[in-house]
Every structure is written in structure tokens, then in C-alpha cells.
Design a protein that fits this description.
1 helix; disordered N terminus; 153 residues
């Protein structure tokens, strides 16, 4: 009986080890080649290694984008709250600076995330290039996002 209790305790710890939280709300800064952006982000973790993140980002050059990213999240072994992730997601960009037009883009990403112990805050940094698929397809590899998030639960 004791072995079964230990087995189920280890199994339940392993089921939550990849994601130290379920939902977060924060602010992101998107920098690199081209304009810089700033705006709210929300992230929800579902399953063992899956998350979806949504964002609305604004620049000072009359451009904004809305995006949703799927992320595969995995903790580094023997760490508490330190994870890496890979993901991709569609983005819609609205430009009113050089004529009104809408961009459709894909954004692959590779990043690091750290959930601060004992505090409901998290930090992330990722490489997130912009691959515009319309208006003359263009790939911008030099894009990065930095963010801070409040862990809701």
C-alpha cells in the first residue's frame, strides 16, 4: 500500500512539474529590427506541456498587431520554475502609417521563462522573428520579446 501512495504522489508531482501556473496576465515589449512594440499579453497553460499566448501590441508608428501563439513548454531538469519553450502563431498587423493595409504573418519562437519562487510573477525572453506572408513576403529574423507577467493561478 505504501508503494502505491508514493507512486501516486510522484505521478501527481510530475503532472504539474512542467507548468508551475495555469494562467498569467502581463506586459510584453517586442524589439529588434524595425519598430518596437508594447502591450498586454495573456497566457493559459493546458495539458502537461501546452500553452497558448495571446497579445495585442502597439508601436509609435501607427502600427499594431494581434496574435495568438501555441507553445510547447518544458522545465529544465532539476530546476524550479525555469522552463524553455518553442512555438508558432499567426499574427494580424494593422498599419495606418504608410497607407492603410493589413499584414498577415507567422511568428515562430524559442524562449526562456522563469517563474519567481514565492512571488506570483514570471519573466520571459524569446527570439520571435516576423515572417510576413502578404504585401511582398518578408522574413525579419532580428525580433525579440521581453515580458513580465502576473501569475493569476
Amino acid at each position: 500500500m505504501k508503494r502505491y501512495i508514493i507512486f501516486f504522489l510522484l505521478l501527481s508531482l510530475g503532472a504539474t512539474a512542467q507548468t508551475p501556473y495555469r494562467t498569467s496576465l502581463g506586459l510584453g515589449i517586442d524589439v529588434g529590427d524595425g519598430s518596437s512594440f508594447f502591450g498586454p499579453q495573456v497566457k493559459h497553460v493546458f495539458g502537461r506541456n501546452a500553452a497558448i499566448q495571446g497579445q495585442v501590441m502597439f508601436s509609435d508608428h501607427n502600427f499594431m498587431y494581434v496574435g495568438a501563439d501555441y507553445q510547447y513548454v518544458k522545465n529544465f531538469p532539476d530546476t524550479r520554475g525555469f522552463a524553455w519553450y518553442l512555438g508558432i502563431g499567426p499574427q494580424l498587423g494593422f498599419n495606418t502609417n504608410h497607407g492603410d493595409y493589413t499584414e498577415f504573418a507567422l511568428r515562430p519562437q524559442a524562449g526562456l521563462e522563469f517563474k519567481l519562487p514565492e512571488v506570483p510573477l514570471g519573466l520571459h525572453f524569446d527570439w520571435k522573428p516576423w515572417w510576413r506572408l502578404n504585401h511582398g513576403s518578408h522574413f525579419t529574423p532580428g525580433r525579440f520579446t521581453i515580458g513580465v507577467k502576473y501569475i493569476i493561478k
